[in-house]
Design brief:
Length: 67
């Protein structure tokens, strides 16, 4: 999604994990951890471009920060 949808080839994801969904019909949430804060900021700035691509129109990217 980062390389094809957002056209961000220089972003490094250090960890990605799919959580189990509450319902069987939907896939679970994917939690991604970026290597550095700048990579996350780049993705957060570009996330609005995904709604214009049919394949990624239902993707929701949320900012999450551990306490």
């Amino acid at each position: 999604m980062l390389k094809d949808g957002l056209k961000l080839s220089n972003i490094t994801v250090s960890k990605a994990e799919r959580k189990k969904s509450r319902t069987e019909s939907r896939p679970g949430v994917v939690m991604a951890t970026f290597k550095c804060k700048e990579d996350k900021q780049t993705v957060m700035n570009a996330k609005s471009d995904l709604r214009h691509i049919n394949q990624y129109s239902k993707i929701f990217i949320n900012h999450d920060l551990a306490p």
